Amino acid sequence: MNQAKIYDIAGAAGVSLATVSRVLNHPEKVKKGTREKVLRIIKEKGYKPNANARGLASRKSTTVAVVVPTVLRASISEMIQGIADSAKKYGYSIRLFVNGQHQTSTDAWSDVIASSVDGILFMNDEMENETYELIEHTPVPVIFINALSKSTKIGSVGIDNEDCSYRVTKEMITRGFKDILFITTEHKYAVNDLKEKGYRRAMEEFRLLPSVFKSSGDLAINEKQFKEMLDSRTPEVVFAVRDSMAISFMNVASKRGIKIPAQMQVVGFQNTRYAELSNPKLSCVETPIYEIGNVAMEKLTELMKNAEETKPTNVVVDYRIIYRESTK
Amino acid sequence: MNQAKIYDIAGAAGVSLATVSRVLNHPEKVKKGTREKVLRIIKEKGYKPNANARGLASRKSTTVAVVVPTVLRASISEMIQGIADSAKKYGYSIRLFVNGQHQTSTDAWSDVIASSVDGILFMNDEMENETYELIEHTPVPVIFINALSKSTKIGSVGIDNEDCSYRVTKEMITRGFKDILFITTEHKYAVNDLKEKGYRRAMEEFRLLPSVFKSSGDLAINEKQFKEMLDSRTPEVVFAVRDSMAISFMNVASKRGIKIPAQMQVVGFQNTRYAELSNPKLSCVETPIYEIGNVAMEKLTELMKNAEETKPTNVVVDYRIIYRESTK
DNA sequence: CTGAAAGCGCTTACAG
DNA sequence: CTGAAAGCGCTTACAG
Fold first, then answer.
1. How far is A152 from chain B (nearest CA, A)?
2. A237: CB partners within 8 A, 6+ apart
3. Is residue A169 part of a domain?
4. How many domains does the structure of chain A reveal?
5. How confident is the model over A199-247, as pLDDT tens digits?
6. Residues B197, B97: one domain?
7. Which domain holds residue B22?
8. Which of A67, A111, B145, B203 is the residue whose CA sits 20 to 30 A from A61?
9. Does A277 touch chain B if contact means CB atoms closer than 8 Å?
10. What are the tens digits of pLDDT across the range B97-151?
11. Does residue B55 belong to any structural domain of this protein?
12. Whether B224 contacts chain A with CB within 8 A
């Protein structure tokens, strides 16, 4: 009934526990006959090595930490799913840290380190210099997700937000639209700053006046703000840093009788599930966030296997623009 | 630079490592002066006990497993957030298992057990008898989430789906609507079966003909099916087991020119973020899924503290119906 | 290819 | 209130 120990397996197989351990960790070092016998008994007894003991002895835990500010955002869920699928493939399990916005307070971070994981996947909206410093001193490999690393010592996987935003804006301009409103968050996020930068660059390139609206994170407040804004003008194109904001804006506009996309076009950012459930269906930049999680976990595996030889790299993932019903 | 060990702390404080350990685990057993000194040094050195060693020695890991089929569903994310917040409060960390639909294959489950967690929060859509059996033999406490347990040995936290569905249906009937369409999943899920049961009970009570539509999980297929269905009739009320389905149906209907709620009312189930982003805004049953996660983790804490005395209970959480724009 | 033994970093009765 | 010692269940050089 109780979980079998390695001793039990060794006893039943008539070998030493060292051999059982080898069968599990270095099967090639064990003679075929012995190996198969041990394996059979392991299966029979349903033996699974104790993770703590294993971790303590080998200094490896085959777990990775996934550190995120929240799990509520659809994009973060998709990313985690991508990580989870990849982790399963490589035999890693996941320790989840939902740290709120204060992820890199020394305290929160040392919790992560003390949990004895073999590597860390770190997703954060903000990237301050202290963050980099803290992370560079971390004893296990770290990969940034969804934000490209500015440090050569830390790898990352993400899209080039600035370039993406620049290209979308430019695309709309060359299609003949000049009055493009950019909606971002009031709260300062590194990724959103990059998106704004790209937008501004495109606008300035064409000598157009950038128009940036910083909206609150709260849906109800947003709607009120959006209504007020629409009192004074109807932009030709609205480009928002998140799908949810784009949709919220679109809904407010629809209710005022503004025809979408005829009178106003709306573009979102991310391609979360919201996009397909909106009416009209939202056109948006598709960030392959599942893939980003997936690849990040894969890269982390490499780093964990041979931290010395493998150089941290910044993997820039491709995005594409999906035109649905909210654009002409 | 390296992580400090308990020996280092003991050395620096001039005490034995037993004392350092006691300061951490049973501070009341240590004289105040000693305790404060040790605590100070711990802080200075940023010492965090090695989780594996601690787990191995104490047979406790202060980690719980959260086992879910996917992380992609908005409701599951909210639940995890609820769990995470509660876990942080009680000092537990989370090991996340994203197991797909085959969660209780003996294999997947023994992975969970082998990960040496102190307790398990288990969310699954299907609840077969083998599942119960497997779980009853688990050496640590388990709590079902979002589905009430049929077993007296396993606790659970969730809403009474059948009752809820019954009441919503009845409410619509007594408001004078007879033609109520129920949309559920093609794939068999225990929770959805319960919802259907409640719906049928209400309809039969009023001698109305139940009309159940089983829709695919795929959005594109759904839309096609919905269109075909709307060719033949326009139900007065549509009640779907998930917000996303309700919204998808609503959008298809809107596009055909059906006025919502004037000609057709739509009610969803869950109150995910989708509900507020739809146009018109979706009326739906609000399952307090964040709270469910939160409470489940709390209950699990109790069970882990004294598994013997604490009896597993089934906590039935209240739901409420939120009327927004998709109903009259 | 296999076994005996040391050690991973802690916790917890047991003495004192 | 504190220390010495055993032990948690593994892994991995080291011999053979």
1. 21
2. A172, A177, A179, A180, A181, A264, A265, A266, A267
3. yes
4. 3
5. 999 999 999 999 999 998 788 999 999 999 999 999 999 999 999 999 9
6. no
7. 6-49
8. B145
9. yes
10. 998 876 666 778 878 888 889 999 999 877 777 778 888 888 889 999 977 777 7
11. no
12. no
